[in-house]
């Protein structure tokens, strides 16, 4: 498909030449969609604190939801294609990529991997089409980096389970048709429960006053004697490793997405620097400004290569969690550095909503925290390198 994007960010090493023809078609399709449908209205959504809900069925039509999964209405694309989708979405806004991450990696993936046949048939085709929205409730007010300490409980009762507890910082919880809630079953093992919208005792509460990810719903979930039937439990996902495996897949998408946010900032700042005149010359002609672009191009190129190689490891099935931690950690920090440098190049204009750099920076302040903070990924790598876990002191 021909692509008419005005987007010109440099792919200096032609890393996209390493993509398959199919993956490049996905790139061009999503790129055009982001230009035509997301970018024109994103400032308004960011200002108003709303998500463009009308676009969700469009994501579905393009096969972007659960794209990496086989069967049940999912597109069965490569993990590399999933990464490309995340990159192009986050070029628009981290909120758009977050939507895809949560739907594809945090809700559809666990149902696909750990769900019963009935759960898969009921939810996956609807979610792939964008007719149903999911959210993933792992974090609690007192358990963020340490989800293994969670306090939410599920008590076995006649015909099902009763859930009690609080989930916090949950993307899409207020707009979700389905909440995947992780809870400690009968005081012991962590299990996943599918809680349908409107279930008595399950109440989402939107978190207001965010400076970051404004074009994305973030909410708490209050669970008060919330009864779910026996078939709400994910039968095959047992223990903390079940939710952590979902995080792996979402972190993978973020490693790619961060590249898109950085490329958007770079592209915008370069256009600006070539036309902004100071001291009778475009600011792009000054050595200090050129050096900033040289640094940023180097950072972006390194991140692109990491994302691509990680994609190969996922597609070959040879990846391990620490591989993904390395790229999530590096690429998000890279994107923040690029975003802040671009904001600086834009001068005072860079603090206005007319330019995207600061919106990306503000979003990335969440991205560097969620899905494992920068330092938690440092510790995951530290354990992989030394064999000594340092999380607990
Ligand atoms: P630990 O003892 O290390 O591990 C428990 C079990 O899990 C296994 N495991 C993994 N399995 C798959 N993938 C991974 N990445 C895994 N990491 C560990 C591990 O082998 C073990 O298995 P087994 O068989 O021995 O039971 O657990 P720990 O309690 O010491 O914690 C380790 C730590 C700190 C790395 C982990 O808790 C962690 O990753 N913390 C960060 C929490 C986090 O990332 N939360 C994200 C919440 S979701 C979110 O932010 C969504 S944002 C969405 C959006 O894009 O909008
Ligand atoms: P804390 O864990 O309290 O960490 C605070 C600081 O302490 C960090 O700097 C951290 O690195 C540091 N720290 C913690 N432990 C250690 C240690 N052992 N050693 C050294 N330093 C340490 N969660 C979900 O379950 N589902 C979602 O959909 C979801 N969406 C989110 C959307 C947004 C916009 C945001 C901001 C968060 C979202 N989260 C979600 C929650 C997110 O995963 C957590 O915020 C994250 O895991 C960090 O937890 P915390 O905020 O409680 O920080």
Q: How would you explain this protein's 3D organization?
A:
With about 400 residues, this protein is α+β, with helices and mostly antiparallel strands. It has 3 domains: about 10-130, Acyl-CoA dehydrogenase/oxidase, N-terminal domain (Butyryl-Coa Dehydrogenase, subunit A, domain 1, Orthogonal Bundle), CATH 1.10.540; about 135-235, Beta Barrel (Butyryl-CoA Dehydrogenase, subunit A, domain 2), CATH 2.40.110.10; about 240-385, Up-down Bundle (Butyryl-CoA Dehydrogenase, subunit A, domain 3). Helix content is about 50%, strand content about 15%. It contains 11 helices and 10 strands. The protein has helices at about 20-40, 40-50, 55-60, 80-90, 95-115, 115-130, 240-275, 285-315, 320-345, 355-365, 375-385, and strands at about 135, 155, 160-170, 180-185, 190-195, 200-205, 220-230, 235-240, 275-280, 280. The strands form 2 sheets. Strands 1, 2, 3, 4, 5, 6, 7 and 8 form an 8-stranded mixed beta sheet that branches. A hairpin with a 2-residue loop joins strand 9 (about 275-280) and strand 10. The longest helix has about 35 residues, at about 240-275. It is globular and about 80 Å long. The N and C termini lie far apart (about 55 Å). Residues about 1-5 have low confidence and may be disordered. Bound molecules: 3-thiaglutaryl-CoA and flavin-adenine dinucleotide (FAD). The site of 3-thiaglutaryl-CoA has 26 residues, from helix 5, helix 7 and helix 11.
């Amino acid at each position: 498909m021909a692509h008419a994007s005005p987007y010109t960010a440099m792919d200096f090493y032609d890393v996209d030449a390493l993509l398959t023809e199919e993956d490049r078609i996905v790139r061009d399709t999503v790129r055009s969609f982001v230009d035509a449908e997301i970018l024109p209205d994103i400032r308004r959504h960011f200002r108003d604190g709303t998500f463009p809900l009308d676009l969700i069925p469009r994501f579905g039509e393009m096969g972007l939801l659960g794209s990496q999964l086989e069967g049940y209405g999912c597109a069965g694309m490569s993990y590399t294609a999933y990464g490309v989708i995340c990159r192009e979405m986050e070029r628009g806004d981290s909120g758009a990529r977050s939507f895809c991450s949560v739907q594809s990696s945090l809700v559809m993936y666990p149902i696909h991997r750990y769900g019963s046949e009935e759960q898969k048939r009921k939810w996956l085709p609807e979610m792939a089409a964008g007719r149903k929205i999911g959210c993933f409730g792992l974090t609690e007010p007192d358990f963020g980096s340490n989800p293994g300490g969670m306090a939410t409980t599920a008590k076995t009762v006649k015909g099902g389970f009763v859930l009690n507890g609080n989930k916090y910082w949950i993307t899409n919880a207020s707009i979700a048709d389905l909440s995947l809630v992780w809870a400690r079953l009968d005081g012991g093992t962590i299990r996943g429960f599918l809680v349908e919208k409107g279930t008595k005792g399950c109440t989402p509460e939107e978190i207001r006053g965010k400076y970051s990810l404004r074009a994305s719903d973030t909410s708490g979930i209050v669970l008060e004697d919330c009864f779910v039937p026996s078939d709400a439990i994910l039968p095959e996902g047992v223990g903390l490793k079940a939710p952590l495996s979902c995080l792996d897949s979402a972190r993978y998408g973020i490693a790619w997405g961060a590249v898109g946010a950085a490329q958007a900032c770079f592209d915008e700042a370069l256009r600006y620097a070539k036309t902004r005149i100071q001291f009778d010359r475009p600011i792009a002609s000054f050595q200090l400004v050129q050096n900033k672009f040289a640094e940023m191009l180097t950072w972006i190129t390194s991140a692109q290569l990491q994302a691509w190689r990680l994609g190969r490891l996922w597609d070959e099935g040879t990846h391990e969690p620490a591989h993904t931690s390395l790229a999530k950690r590096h690429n998000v920090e890279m994107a923040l550095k690029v975003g802040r440098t671009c904001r600086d190049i834009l001068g005072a204009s860079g603090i206005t909503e007319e330019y995207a750099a600061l919106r990306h920076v503000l979003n990335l302040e969440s991205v560097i925290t969620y899905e494992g903070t920068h330092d938690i990924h440092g510790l995951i790598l530290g354990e992989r390198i030394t064999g000594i876990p340092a999380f607990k002191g």
